[in-house]
Model the fold of this input.
Amino acid sequence: GNVVTANDIREHAGEGAHASREIVYWAINDACPPAPGCAFPQSPPSPAQSGVAFAEVWQFAQSPQRKDVAGRCTNYSRDGNCYPPATNPAQGLHVDLNTATSPDPSHARTH
Done:
């Protein structure tokens, strides 16, 4: 079977024997579905929709588009990249898209 890295880490380094560790899970799943692809929805999807129910961050689009994984996503630019709305691709400002459960999921500002 397939190993989901986040599940494996959670079982072996997270909540099990090392319960004192606080691990923030960042899921990367740019396959459509569940990913919306190169989309900028007003209400971004929840990281749990990534397929990792306990994820706090989800990267749902990546530039350049990974054809082997995200080939079903039809809303990337013709050159295979994701550009912000109203941006000219000639500017070369291609982006990856993420959503999170909070503005600072790593809690970097509190350490």
